[in-house]
């Protein structure tokens, strides 16, 4: 694979090493550290002139540090004359902040930011030419970019896991813990040729579910709950109880 250089950020070095092993490549030399004032420092340890650079860095864990490190790595490669920089971001940071929500007792548009769009702008300005991500929380985030975005799906792996690990999968029902995931569960249910259900939830505030209503019949079936993001896991636990 000529002209390809693969770098790993500090979010998931093990994943990057597995990708490199699968491709038969050595991970590129890069040193990331922090100054005493917590500024992020990145040093690219080899020439990337004219190379096709891939940087693997996920938006979870220390999310702000990881995002800033990714931006600096992209920019470092770009100004070192790489031909193209692709950011591989399995978990896209700030993906839940993809629109303005209605807030308050009287419905009105909030003054909340659309932070996913801000992150898209930051990646583009840093110099990214291509984004590869997985299972975006909202597919419209692809439209926030003016560069190519590949949104990969974990669904084939999920289907394989269900068939191999759940004995009664033919009598299961796929359940979405919220109405927003209806499209996700119907796709899986169709591929397995089983039924689906969903739970409508109402929130008083972020990370706190007020009320849940089950829509569908799960009696005497194996219920498989499918969601795309788990923060406190409160929604999944409430849905399982319901």
TrEMBL record:
<dbReference type="GO" id="GO:0002189">
    <property type="term" value="C:ribose phosphate diphosphokinase complex"/>
</dbReference>
<dbReference type="GO" id="GO:0016301">
    <property type="term" value="F:kinase activity"/>
</dbReference>
<dbReference type="GO" id="GO:0006015">
    <property type="term" value="P:5-phosphoribose 1-diphosphate biosynthetic process"/>
</dbReference>
<comment type="similarity">
    <text>Belongs to the ribose-phosphate pyrophosphokinase family.</text>
</comment>
<comment type="subunit">
    <text>Homodimer. The active form is probably a hexamer composed of 3 homodimers.</text>
</comment>
<dbReference type="GO" id="GO:0000287">
    <property type="term" value="F:magnesium ion binding"/>
</dbReference>
<dbReference type="InterPro" id="IPR005946">
    <property type="entry name" value="Rib-P_diPkinase"/>
</dbReference>
<dbReference type="Pfam" id="PF13793">
    <property type="entry name" value="Pribosyltran_N"/>
</dbReference>
<protein>
    <recommendedName>
        <fullName>Ribose-phosphate pyrophosphokinase</fullName>
        <ecNumber>2.7.6.1</ecNumber>
    </recommendedName>
</protein>
<feature type="domain" description="Ribose-phosphate pyrophosphokinase N-terminal">
    <location>
        <begin position="4"/>
        <end position="127"/>
    </location>
</feature>
<keyword id="KW-0067">ATP-binding</keyword>
<dbReference type="GO" id="GO:0004749">
    <property type="term" value="F:ribose phosphate diphosphokinase activity"/>
</dbReference>
<keyword id="KW-0418">Kinase</keyword>
<dbReference type="GO" id="GO:0005524">
    <property type="term" value="F:ATP binding"/>
</dbReference>
<feature type="domain" description="Phosphoribosyltransferase">
    <location>
        <begin position="159"/>
        <end position="240"/>
    </location>
</feature>
<dbReference type="Pfam" id="PF00156">
    <property type="entry name" value="Pribosyltran"/>
</dbReference>
<dbReference type="InterPro" id="IPR000836">
    <property type="entry name" value="PRTase_dom"/>
</dbReference>
<dbReference type="GO" id="GO:0009156">
    <property type="term" value="P:ribonucleoside monophosphate biosynthetic process"/>
</dbReference>
<dbReference type="InterPro" id="IPR029057">
    <property type="entry name" value="PRTase-like"/>
</dbReference>
<dbReference type="GO" id="GO:0006164">
    <property type="term" value="P:purine nucleotide biosynthetic process"/>
</dbReference>
<comment type="function">
    <text>Catalyzes the synthesis of phosphoribosylpyrophosphate (PRPP) that is essential for nucleotide synthesis.</text>
</comment>
<dbReference type="InterPro" id="IPR000842">
    <property type="entry name" value="PRib_PP_synth_CS"/>
</dbReference>
<keyword id="KW-0547">Nucleotide-binding</keyword>
<comment type="pathway">
    <text>Metabolic intermediate biosynthesis; 5-phospho-alpha-D-ribose 1-diphosphate biosynthesis; 5-phospho-alpha-D-ribose 1-diphosphate from D-ribose 5-phosphate (route I): step 1/1.</text>
</comment>
<keyword id="KW-0460">Magnesium</keyword>
<dbReference type="GO" id="GO:0005737">
    <property type="term" value="C:cytoplasm"/>
</dbReference>
<keyword id="KW-0545">Nucleotide biosynthesis</keyword>
<keyword id="KW-0479">Metal-binding</keyword>
<keyword id="KW-0808">Transferase</keyword>
<dbReference type="InterPro" id="IPR029099">
    <property type="entry name" value="Pribosyltran_N"/>
</dbReference>
């Amino acid at each position: 694979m000529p002209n390809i250089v693969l770098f790993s950020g500090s979010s998931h070095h093990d994943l990057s090493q597995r990708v490199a092993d699968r491709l038969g490549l050595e991970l590129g030399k890069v040193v990331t550290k922090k100054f005493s004032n917590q500024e992020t420092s990145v040093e690219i340890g080899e020439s990337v002139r004219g190379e096709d650079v891939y940087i693997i860095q996920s938006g979870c864990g220390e999310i702000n540090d990881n995002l800033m490190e990714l931006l600096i790595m992209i920019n470092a490669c770009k100004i070192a004359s790489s031909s193209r920089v692709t950011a591989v971001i399995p978990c896209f940071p700030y993906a839940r902040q993809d629109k303005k929500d209605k807030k308050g007792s009287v419905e009105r548009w909030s003054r909340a930011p659309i932070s996913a769009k801000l992150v898209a702008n930051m990646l583009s300005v840093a110099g990214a030419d291509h984004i590869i991500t997985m299972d975006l929380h909202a597919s419209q985030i692809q439209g926030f970019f003016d560069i190519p975005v590949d949104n990969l799906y974990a669904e084939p792996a999920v289907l394989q896991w269900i068939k191999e690990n759940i004995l009664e999968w033919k009598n299961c029902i796929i359940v979405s813990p919220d109405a927003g995931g209806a499209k996700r569960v119907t796709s899986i249910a169709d591929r397995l040729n089983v039924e689906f259900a969903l739970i409508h939830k109402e929130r008083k505030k972020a990370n706190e579910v007020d009320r849940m209503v089950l829509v569908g019949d799960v009696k005497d079936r194996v219920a498989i709950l499918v969601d795309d993001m788990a923060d406190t896991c409160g929604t999944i636990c409430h849905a399982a109880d319901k």
